[in-house]
Amino acid sequence: MMRALVYTGVETLEMRDMPRPLVGPDQSLVRVYASGLCGSDMHAYLGHDDRRPAPLILGHEAAGVVDGTSRRVTINPLVTCGTCDACKRGRDNLCPDRMIISMPPREGAFAQFIVMADANLVTVPEHISFEKAALAEPLACGWHAVRLAEEAVDRPLDQARCLVIGGGAIGVGAALALRAFGAVDITVIEPNDMRRAMLDSIDGFVAVGAGGFDGQAHLVVDAVGYASTRADATEMTHPGGVIAHIGLGEGTGGLDIRRMTLQEITFIGTYTYTMADFRETAQAIFDGQLGALDWVETRPLHAGAAAFSDLRAGRVASPKIILIPDQEE
Q: What is the Cα–Cα distance from 140 to 275, expressed in whole angstroms?
């Protein structure tokens, strides 16, 4: 058995004893030492994600140790077939059979243990904490979006004005990826005063409140994904510019298609990351290319319900909460 934080209904989470997951061929049992709380976990918690019905163990941003060994790993939670056209072309994130942990039938990582395919494990060096290693998953989303946007934007990134809408972990990751890719003019819009004060301590970009960005950007990353942020992105993108859309807030509304057509604005939908993106992001963390990554808040897994409640109420300054499972048997 193991201890796990289980989503049991709308805005309800409970610590429960759960069976340890069974290990199949070419898989490993990973003892979880850090697991990040994602916006998609919050969507499920609020009852807004039909793909994640209760009861379910949420969480997919994890790092730990392969059980019975000393191998420290971070986990790519996206499982793909490896044989379809998308996988063969290196676009495995578009695999029609893709699955991510924390969606049935695969339980998530808010638990003491998780099973993952060996091919999805990336070894973490000793000088990197588990909390930083667990950031590989959310930061890879921004890395993937910036890589695609760099190919589409009409100028080198060091000559581009870049804007990120949303100062959560995905937005911060996109801003840090932009810096790693060579951008120097980067602004992040974050309306929450408490979180924006935290963002001010991160080097590499400027954080402003709603209405605090003047003019237009050559590259806009929407890391929120609501109709209102898409409307802002459309308005604030320079003619000939690019919108990279990561956020999954809501599915419709916001884009000014007429302006995008007349001004030849490119819209790129971006979903998660490829395995290559994940490995590159992990290596960038290991090499220090993404900064100190000291903007996370850690809480014990058994306090996870309060963490969700605080995040829901806007009482969290940090872009990311990392839950730490109790390692006692």
A: 9
∠ CA 220-162-227 to the nearest 5 degrees? 20
Helix (H, G, I), strand (E, B) or coil at 172: helix
Question: For residue 323, how many C-alpha atoms fall within 13 Å in the half-sphere facing its CB?
Answer: 29
Phi and psi at residue 249, to the nearest 5° = -60, -50
User: Residue 186 half-sphere exposure, CB side, CA atoms within 13 Å?
Assistant: 27
Sequence spans of domains, the chain: 2-135+293-324, 141-269
* 300, 324 contact by CB (below 8 A): yes
Alpha-carbon span 164 to 233, nearest angstrom = 9
Name the one residue in this structure whose structure tokens are 């695609």: 148
Q: Which of 203, 258, 223 is nearest to 149 (CA)?
A: 223
pTM to 2 decimal places = 0.96
Is the CATH number of domain 2-135+293-324 3.30.360.10?
Answer: no
Cα-atom radius of gyration of the chain, to the nearest Å? Answer: 19
The pLDDT tens digits along the chain (329 residues) read 999 999 999 999 999 999 999 999 999 999 999 999 999 999 999 999 999 999 999 999 999 999 999 999 999 999 999 999 999 999 999 999 999 999 999 999 999 999 999 999 999 999 999 999 999 999 999 999 999 999 999 999 999 999 999 999 999 999 999 999 999 999 999 999 999 999 999 999 999 999 999 999 999 999 999 999 999 999 999 999 999 999 998 899 999 999 999 999 999 999 999 999 999 999 999 999 999 999 999 999 999 999 999 999 999 999 999 999 987 65
Fold of 141-269: Rossmann fold (3.40.50)
Cα dist from 87 to 83, 98, 106, 132, 248, whole Å: 6, 10, 21, 28, 23
